[in-house]
């Protein structure tokens, strides 16, 4: 488990949000997607724990006509999918969103394609019947939200010590990205997103719809990032792993700790509860420049002495109404085993 002290993350946060959506309906039951934009403030010298709960438009829509092992058949045209479906880290860059069936809303990575077939992992295939309607979308990338040329205006430099740093968590492993700028305007080395120790372009580093990033800014200029896209119209299945990860509500709506649906009383379906942060799952949240810790208090007496409720260390006052704003991410330190957080949209 990665600790905040080890990461040496400045404890400052600021986030501004504007959401505009439009929706029109035909005379049938089919409606157009909800689309809109989200503005995120990234003040200089401060850190922002943010997410991007607006998805790319689908590049393919269709219905599966069968399944053989991990290979799914469809009559839908797959020509809009590129020949190379992975990014520079060899991670799948496209995913299937199930639009019907028992697992509506499930996201499944696309590993490869044929003329009328799609291959997924064996574990993902086990969750599919092979007759569901689906959409294929591209994962949002760092270049999508911050600009391939750093149009977001983050401070660039020749290393993470001189640049603003974007932290992302994949499978419990922390990754750093920064915009490489050696001061020569790209005449010697290209201006691009990089990771420490690599000269490869990492602008295609993906950000999953249910994940967030931590942007650690150095002194410089304030900036605002505007993202556009579609609101997810299906339920979501957010994987919680053992260890540290940055998670988010996958929809652009405010929630509270109490309405996130993480207090279930069962560590197989929700957060581990306990009488202190030393034996509970811990939620880290940036509030007005200060890291706050939250956990679900449960002293083992089923609420007969003290209620089972959201608390912060050192205070018995309920924290269930603490707001988690649209576009805000949370850092989770998970003690329990992996489970799937099921959350419905607005």
Strands, count? 26
Give, in spatial order, the strands making up the sheet with the most strands. 7-6-10-4-5-9-8
Report the mean per-residue pLDDT as an integer.
88
Largest sheet: 7 strands, antiparallel
Strand-and-helix sequence, N→C?
Answer: HEEEEEEEEEHEEHEEEEEEEEEEEEEEE
Question: Count the helices. How many?
Answer: 3
Strand content: 35-45%
What is the radius of gyration computed over CA atoms, rounded to a whole number of angstroms? 21 Å
First and last CA, distance:
33 Å
Q: Per the principal axes of the C-alpha atoms, what is the gross shape?
A: globular
Account of the protein in words:
The chain has helices spanning 4-7, 122-125, 142-146, and strands at 19-22, 35-42, 47-51, 60-68, 71-74, 94-98, 107-109, 112-113, 117-119, 133-138, 140-141, 165-170, 173-180, 192-194, 206-207, 212-216, 223-230, 236-240, 243-248, 255-256, 282-287, 290-297, 309-311, 323-324, 329-334, 339-343. By secondary structure, the protein is mainly beta. The strands form seven sheets. The chain has a seven-stranded antiparallel beta sheet, with no helix packed on it. A five-stranded antiparallel beta sheet has the order 3-16-12-13-14, with no helix packed on it. Strands 19-25-21-22-23 form a five-stranded antiparallel beta sheet, with no helix packed on it. Strand 21 (282-287) and strand 22 form a beta hairpin.
């Amino acid at each position: 488990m990665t600790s905040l002290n080890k990461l040496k993350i400045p404890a400052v946060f600021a986030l501004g949000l504007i959401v505009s959506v439009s929706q029109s309906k035909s005379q049938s039951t089919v409606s157009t997607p909800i689309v809109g934009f989200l503005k995120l403030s990234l003040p200089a010298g401060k850190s922002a724990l943010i997410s991007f709960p607006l998805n790319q438009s689908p590049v393919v829509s269709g219905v599966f006509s069968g399944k053989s092992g991990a290979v799914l058949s469809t009559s839908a045209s797959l020509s809009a999918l590129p020949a190379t479906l992975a990014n520079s880290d060899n991670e799948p860059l496209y995913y299937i969103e199930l639009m019907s069936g028992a697992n509506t809303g499930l996201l499944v990575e696309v590993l490869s394609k044929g003329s009328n077939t799609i291959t997924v992992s064996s574990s993902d295939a086990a969750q599919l019947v092979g007759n569901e309607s689906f959409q294929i979308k591209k994962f949002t990338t760092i270049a999508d939200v911050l600009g391939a040329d750093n149009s977001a205006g983050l401070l660039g430099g020749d290393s993470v010590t001189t640049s603003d740093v974007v932290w992302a968590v994949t499978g419990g492993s922390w990754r750093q990205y920064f915009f490489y700028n050696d001061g020569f305007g790209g005449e010697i080395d290209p201006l691009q997103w990089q990771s420490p120790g690599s000269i490869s372009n990492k602008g295609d580093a993906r950000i999953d719809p249910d994940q967030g990033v931590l942007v650690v800014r150095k002194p410089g200029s304030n900036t605002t990032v505007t993202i556009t896209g579609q609101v997810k119209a299906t339920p979501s299945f957010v994987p919680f792993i053992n260890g540290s990860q940055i998670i988010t509500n996958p929809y652009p709506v405010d929630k509270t700790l109490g309405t996130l649906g993480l207090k279930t009383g069962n560590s197989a379906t929700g957060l581990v509860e306990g009488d202190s942060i030393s034996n509970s799952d811990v939620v880290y949240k940036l509030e007005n420049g200060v890291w706050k810790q939250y956990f679900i208090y449960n002293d083992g007496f089923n609420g007969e002495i003290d209620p089972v409720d959201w608390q912060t260390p050192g205070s018995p006052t309920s924290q269930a109404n603490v707001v988690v704003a649209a576009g805000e991410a949370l850092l989770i330190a998970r003690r329990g085993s992996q489970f799937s957080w099921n959350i419905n949209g607005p």
